[in-house]
Amino acid sequence: MDKFWLERTELLIKEEGVKRLQNASILVVGLGGVGSFAAEFLARSGVGKMTIVDGDTVDITNINRQLPALHSTVGKHKVEIVAERLMDINPNLELIKINEFLNPERMDEVLDSGTFDYILDCIDSVTPKVALIIAAKRRRIKVVSSMGAGGKSDPAKVMVRDISKTQECYLAKQVRKRLKKEKIDKGIRCVFSNEIQDEDSLKMTDGSNYKRSFYGTISYIPAIFGLYAAAEVINHLVKKSDAEF
User: In what residue span(s) does the THIF-type NAD/FAD binding fold domain sit (predicted)?
Assistant: First the structure.
């Protein structure tokens, strides 16, 4: 008889922990350098149900940091590539794919399409990011939000804190400012780095998909952000009381 593929996981978190992950439903929005790794870590932990959202295709400039990005996948939809990987990791995963950029006007519909235990916000544009956080807060769904991984290179400076404790992050500053207008100033767990951003690595864009600029990136930093985000979710789910299931 084949060994249980989660045997090592079960040794660490016990049978009850595995069951909690198998009963969980997670929404991952954004499958770039952060979200693609986060989704994979969640799948490898044994999470039973996942909805993944991204409308982008692989660009050759994604190869330096994104899990689905290879020379052979340039031009292909990220959501399809990531979905294939996740199903190959866990064929029993209940997976829903949404192949679109999640615009603010669609947030309510997507969040009401399922019962989510946790949301991973891996969007890198301020407007839809803030809309997702607000929609999650209104529904009292726990959310972990990834802030800016660009312009950073020191892995030791990456951490998870409440949004009110974020610093040295331009994206976090913009998000805090927008949320304050909605009278939200705390209660959102954020992955961020307090390393000062390398301003020399900034490049302006054409402003498509709400993005006006981006910083240079190195291979491992977005992956670490994804790791921290997934760990936040997994540890929370494993520690939940039996009464919640």
Answer: 12-240
User: What pLDDT, on a 0 to 100 scale, did the predictor assign at position 205?
Assistant: 78
pLDDT tens sequence across 118-175: 999 999 999 999 999 999 999 999 999 999 999 999 999 999 999 999 999 999 999 9
Alpha helices, H only, 73-118: 78-89, 107-111
Torsion over CA: 94, 36, 234, 125 (sign): negative
Residue 143 — φ and ψ, nearest 5°? -135, 140
Cβ contacts of 115 within 8 Å, gap of 6 or more: 25
Neighbours of 129 (CB within 10 A): 26
Q: How far is CA 96 from CA 88, 148, 154, 190, 220, in A?
A: 15, 27, 35, 25, 27
Task: Answer for the pair 169, 192: CB distance below 8 angstroms, yes or no.
Answer: yes
- Please state the pTM of the whole predicted model: 0.93
